[in-house]
Specification:
This protein is an all-alpha fold and 210 residues long. Helix content is 80%, strand content 0%. 35% of the residues are buried.
């Protein structure tokens, strides 16, 4: 039996695990964006917070994924459900590119444009929403693009703690020394990462100031 036949015979399970994978990536990315983008705005406006915030996000990136899952397992409430634990871990890993790109995008706005906005009577909040964030949107989206691609790859590791996703097929294939199972999990995960990268890259190009 070749890989395509195996894929056709097990399409229902692969589709279900793909949807689980997308759920883990989607919810963790949304949470990371809701936390990371405001943090990026904060350190852009108050640079004294820059080093501690970026240092904390960098430290999380240095922790191996399996080790982070292990550290979080004993945490009350989180450890009771593998899905919660996986979403938290993926959210933590996605924070750095979102924080850093939001900071870089806002700080990269031409000061002359900001001063022109102030001269027109815009408040700091209006400057942020009407000038800085729109001009920084392509850079912020670039950070989101990196975060999504990282999450798609790391979500396969979440199967090690029973959180589901395409990693289940990969781990099962490794245990059984079955290349078809490994490919059934690895290839859809790689395709999801490529599609996310291409789609967000296209949107990033559309939002880039001309």
């Amino acid at each position: 039996m070749n890989w395509l036949q195996f894929l056709a015979q097990n399409r229902a399970e692969i589709l279900e695990l793909t949807l689980e994978h997308l759920w883990l990536v989607g919810i963790s990315t949304v949470i990371a964006a809701l936390v990371g983008i405001p943090l990026g705005v904060m350190i852009a406006r108050w640079p004294s917070f820059n080093k501690p915030v970026l240092a904390a996000a960098n430290i999380v990136q240095t922790i191996p994924s399996l080790a982070l899952f292990g550290f979080l397992l004993p945490v009350p409430w989180l450890g009771d459900r593998a899905e919660r634990l996986a979403i938290l871990a993926l959210t933590l890993y996605a924070l750095l590119p979102l924080i850093r790109n939001t900071y870089t995008g806002i700080r990269g706005v031409d000061p002359a444009v900001v001063e022109a906005g102030r001269a027109m009577g815009l408040t700091e909040r209006q400057l942020l929403w009407q000038v800085q964030l729109p001009l920084a949107s392509s850079v912020i989206l670039s950070g989101l693009r990196v975060a999504v691609v990282i999450s798609v790859g790391l979500a396969t590791i979440a199967a090690a703690i029973g959180a589901g996703g395409l990693g289940e097929l990969i781990f099962r294939g490794l245990a059984m020394v079955n290349n078809q199972l490994i490919l059934a999990g690895a290839i859809p995960a790689a395709l999801l990462a490529l599609l996310a990268d291409f789609g967000l890259g296209w949107l990033e190009g559309r939002l880039r100031p001309q």
